[in-house]
Structures are given as structure tokens and as C-alpha cells.
Amino acid sequence: MTTLIKNAQILDGTGGPPTKGDIFIKGDRISAIGDLGRQSAERVINAAGMYASPGFIDVNTDSDHYLTLFTNPEQHDFLLQGVTTIFGGLCGASLAPLLYGELLSVRKWAGDTTRVNVDWKTVKEFLAVLERIKLGVNFGTLIGHGTIRRALIGENIRDLTDGELVIFEKLTLDALKDGAFGFSTGLAYAHSKATPVYEIKRLVKTAARKNTIYATHLRDETAGLIASIKETIDVTRDAGVTTIVSHLRPIKGFEAEYEEALAIISRNVDNAKIYFDLYPFDTSHVPIYSFLPERVKLGGFETMLKTLENAVAAEEILREMPERNGEDITIAGASQNNYLVGKSLKSIAEKRGIGANEALLQIMLLTRMRCTVTDRNIDYPTTLKALNNPQSLVSSNSESSAKGEFKLERSTRTFTKFLDLAIRENLMPLPQAIEKITSKPASIFGIRDRGILKEGLKADINIFSADEAQGTTIINVLVNGTLAVFNKNLESVRAGEVLRKT
Ligand SMILES: [Zn+2]
Fold first, then answer.
1. 484 CB burial (10 A radius; 0-12, 13-18, 19+)
2. Ligand 1 centroid to 216 CA: how many Å?
């Protein structure tokens, strides 16, 4: 198949100003760029008045965690916003390697994991399964510290023995040889929180040996943020690795800590290769139990629910919870109680004639904790500054889900919103914004044949309009030379490739 994109304003991903020209695609690669006036092709796309750019790269997604790689292999929420490559395996949890074929470490996202037939163990086998399924986008994975640690010692919370660490290093090295792009931690989660720094250093050094990256969900993103960032810089320097701090967002009430964290990163960029990712929205998505006081969260769901069922204990919890009116909290997911989805906590509380916190506890009991909410708890002006930081990358930190399901705005609009900010609110020049979501992540992850529009490279290409009045509209998307979105509509092709770090 040959395709000719004509008369586009070409933003090649390197940050330079647009140049007018044509792009000729043969098979899955870009064959020629320039004034190709007399070139013919099987398909010709007139891109006059539109931009052409490399497909966008989302460095932090949850499509593996929610198992939607299997239930929604098209991954259309990404394609429709111009994302052609996504990464999974973040936050300490990946779908491989598995020692016993169990997906315990993604239960907190996916709930019931038995709907996927797990017939792989190694990263190599997992990537082969994805190749058979065929995804709509390119997919690469990191490997999760929590996934392997849990397989090694089960539900225990303790330091690893030296023997276990040696096995861990071997498993990490094997997974990286199989094509994983790096190693991730989820240090805020109960099973990983007490992990000693020396363990992380040893494992991250393994990632550095294979020239792959380290991504970390910090131990603490609020009051303990500074200590967490300092620890991360220490690990980064010690291992000589490239690090991405995952979903580093300014949580309301901790803006000063956040600014200081970014200042520490800036001061260290000369001696530590450190980046961070975030999305351009003011809302986070959390399980409902996260509103309980820390001491109550120590047990599992059943223990928490038992505590709440005790009237005296519940009274005590209510006294400990900070005042809120419930306006910023909306029910996002409650599989057994769908009628709650989309309702604000404030409206639920008013209808029941009770306070917002009391309503929260009632919903926890009603849904047996199987409930997630969105919370408008991120400071937006500080978010905009962070997006402009040279060390920041853009991520949805989200998944593509089936049509008709409740969707977070960041699932469907992270990248078009980011470009809207560039063209409408002068966040940064458009070529620079494109660079941040194409060649920059490609070079950090070590993907050499994507992220730039250049002869010989893979043809992941977006054609879009962008102006101040209308904002950004993705019109056509090519994935590996195949038209995956045409005239804003999804084509039923799955042209993504499974990526391996080489
Ligand atoms: Zn995370």
C-alpha cells in the first residue's frame, strides 16, 4: 500500500517551525518527504490547511492494569486523540513477568482478573500474546517491581533476603532482555511502601545496565513529597539511570512542596537524568477507600468494611475526616451500583439529608468498596507551569475502555487538550508542544524509528487542524502506514505493533 499526504504543514517532531510539503508512505514506513508534486499513490490525502506530525506517545497508561488491552484491543480512545504508541507496566505493576501466572498486582485496578486467560509467564511470551491479539496502537511495557516482589514473597510485608534479591535481579535482567523498556515502582502502595532504598537501587542498576529507564510512583505525593523526590534523585544518580517520576501532579494544599520538588529536579538535571509526567487536568481518579484515615486503610476491604459497620468506630472516623462539601467529588465507577455513576457526592448527600463525609461512608458500605471517584484535588495553575517545565512529559495515566462506559476526560482528551493549551493559551509554541509528545518521549525510551517524521522511519502520522477558534481536531491517523482514523472516524484496523527495547 502506498499513501501520499499532500500539501501539509509538516511539524516533524524536532521542535522546528512547520514546513509545507508532501509525505509519501510505502508499506509501514515513510518513503519520502518534500515537494512530491508528480508522485502518485494508491491513496492520496489532501492535507491543505492542516498539520502533519508524528503520532503522539503516551508514556503512562493503564490499559494493561484495567486489562482493556484484551477487552478493547482497538484502544480507540487513544487513536481518536492522535496517540499511536502507549506504554504500560507503570506504578510497580505489569502483566509480565509472572512466576505463577496470576495477575494479583493489577486487581486494584481490574477487579476480577479471571476474565483473561493468562497463558504466559515471561515478557517474551506476554508480548507474543499481544501480537496475536493485535492492538490498535503500538504498545511497549515496563516491568513492575510490585508484580515480581509479590510473586516472590506473597502478601508478606518484609525485606527480601539476599537470595531473593539475587533471583529478583535475574528475573529483571531476563525481562529486559525480552524487550521490556524499563523497571517501575509503585512505592505508595501497601505492598511496596516499606521497600528499603538499597533494594530499589540494586534493581534499578539492573535496568541501567540494559540501558532502560526507571519509572516511579513516589512513596508520598503530599506531605512527604520532598523526601520522596530526594530519594528518587539519589537512586537516579546512584544507578546512572534515566528516571521518569510518574503522574507528578500538584495536589491542592501541597503546592509549595510541589514547587520545591520541581526546583530540586531543575537543580539536578546536570547530574541526574530525571523527568516527570502529568496530564493537563485538575482531577484525579481514586478508589473510594482513599478518603479513610490512614489507620483504617491498613487492612484489606473486608477489614475496612467491618470497621465501618461498627457505629462507634464509624462515628470516630467521621470526626477524623476533614470537612468537605462534596462538590469536587463525583462517582466514576460502581459496577454493581451504576445509578450512582456521574453523580456528585454533594447531590447524593443532599438527597439523603446527611453530610458529605457521612455519604462517603454510606457509599463505601453500599458498594462494598467497589467504587472509584474523581476528585478535583489538583491545582490547575501549577499544573500549567509544570507542563511548561522542560523535564515534563504528557501522559493520560488512563486507559482506553469500551464504548459507552463512563470515561474520564483524560482518557479521551489528554493530548488534544494539551495542544489546545499551546495554541489557545500560549502555553508554548505548537512545534515545541508536538516535540514534547513525540520525539522527546521516543528518545527517552530509546525508540529510534518513531517520534520524528523522517524518511525511513515508521509511518505513525497524525493529520490535524489547530487554530485558536476551533482548537485541535484530529482528522486522520496512520499507524505503521495504515489509516486507523479517517475523517475523524475509526477504521476497523488494528495496525499497532508490539514494541521491544533493543
Ligand atoms: Zn501510579
1. buried
2. 8
Q: How far is the CA of 11 from the centre of ligand 1 (A)?
A: 32
Q: Is residue 85 classed as helix, strand or coil in its secondary structure?
A: strand
How many whole angstroms from 500 Cα to the centroid of ligand 1? 22
pLDDT at position 402: 83
**Tell me: the pLDDT tens digits for 175-203?**
999 999 999 999 998 788 889 999 999 99
Cβ-contact 131, 498 below 8 angstroms = yes
Count of domains for the chain: 3
Same domain, 184 and 250: yes
Looking at the DSSP bridge assignments, the partners of residue 146 are none
> Where does a domain end: 359, 375, 391?
375
Contact predicate 192/222, CB 8 Å: no
Per-residue pLDDT at 406 exceeds 80: no
**Residue 26: DSSP 8-state:** E
Whole domain around residue 163: which residue ranges? 56-282+378-444
For ligand 1, the distance from its centroid to the CA atom of residue 248, given in whole angstroms, is 9
Number of H helices, E strands in the chain: 17, 21
Cα–Cα dist 235/197, whole Å = 8
Q: How many A from CA of 169 to the centre of ligand 1?
A: 22
Considering the entire predicted model, what is its pTM?
0.95
Q: How many CB atoms are closer than 10 A to CB 158?
A: 8
Distance 436 CA to ligand 1 centre (A): 21
Grid coordinates belonging to 391 = 523535564
Parallel, antiparallel, or unpaired for β 2-10 and 19-26? antiparallel
Q: Ligand 1 centre from 218 Cα, in Å?
A: 8
- Same domain for 202 and 273? yes
Rounded Cα gap, residues 1 and 48, in angstroms: 22
| pLDDT tens readout for residues 228-268 | 999 999 999 999 999 999 999 999 999 999 999 999 999 99
How many Å lie between the centroid of ligand 1 and the Cα of residue 429? 29
Angstrom distance (rounded) from CA 249 to CA 137: 26
Ligand 1 centre and the CA of 88: distance in Å? 11
Q: Compute the distance from residue 21 Cα to the ligand 1 centre, in Å.
A: 41
CATH number at residue 47: 2.30.40.10
Measured in Å, residue 217 CA sits from the centre of ligand 1 at: 5
